[in-house]
Design goal:
Strand order of the largest sheet: 1-2-7-3-4-5-6
Strand content: 5-15%
Largest sheet: 7 strands, mixed
Number of strands: 7
Oligomer: single chain
Distance between the termini: 12 Å
Radius of gyration: 20 Å
Structural class: alpha/beta
Length: 319
Amino acid sequence: MLASLPHMTQRSPNNSLAMVRSDNTTFRAKRRALFFGVLVCVMVSLLFITSCSASETPQEEVAEAPTDRPNIVFILTDDLDFASASKTPQIRSRLIEEGTSFEKAFVSLALCCPSRATILTGLYAHNHDVTHNEAPAGGFQKFVDEGHEENTIAVRLQEGGYQTAFFGKYLNDYPGDEESTYIPPGWDEWYGKHGHREHQPYRYKINENGQVVSYGNNTEDYYSDVLSRQATDFVGRTAEDSRPFFMFVAPTAPHGPATPAERHKGAFASEEGPRPPSFDEEDVSDKPTYVSSLDRISEEEASAIDEYYRERLESMLAV
């Protein structure tokens, strides 16, 4: 999701659902591919534009006309599927209608860390070689070891005169083998959530501009709210600056455990998880063994699926 804010005029607020017993791996991958594809296309476009600007425009000209360049707010949710996004009208009203939407987009490797690496670099997964969420084939440390930290969109935009700020989940298992206070190149301000308990809404750690801060289990520690306060504070401090800004905001919702904020619990109490034809399919004789050998979904399991689905939607309300 991308929101472009007119310079100096606005202030900004803000495991896949396993529910089918038949072969829905491709279905889930396509849904996630669609969502990540939106993000990837936006970032690749930005990288291309920035690269062209850097090669064709003298630095003096860029410095003389900073107000011609928009502020950029880039929001990356974690495991939000397209169907669930349609249940949150704020996404459409605030980001799609006032921002940018790509409805026919695809991703080459529909996993979290490879897609995040592509967003940061504009490279296909087979080129950046971060092909998994965990080491040795993936994760934050793999990204670092491949030398990509020096060639991200943050580095390029910073070189082009943008103020840059990151908030949220960076790459899986950050900070890896680096120091706990490590800040990747290119970021003027950094609020990166540590990989340990990186998806937990309470009791986590954030590297806040070189100082690791621990958060507790109180209502005010709810992660999406902390993220919102940090991002809003940044906009408030920089909106009047002569330089445009780029914000990368990456909440961990609705990734499991998908715990909603206290104020949002029960907001989707009447919702039922999707029931596509593959849900608890009666005849699976034509499916692979790992599907056909499974038991039918019990009432208890179906109820748990519905509850998790509701929690995912409710966790998005804070975002």
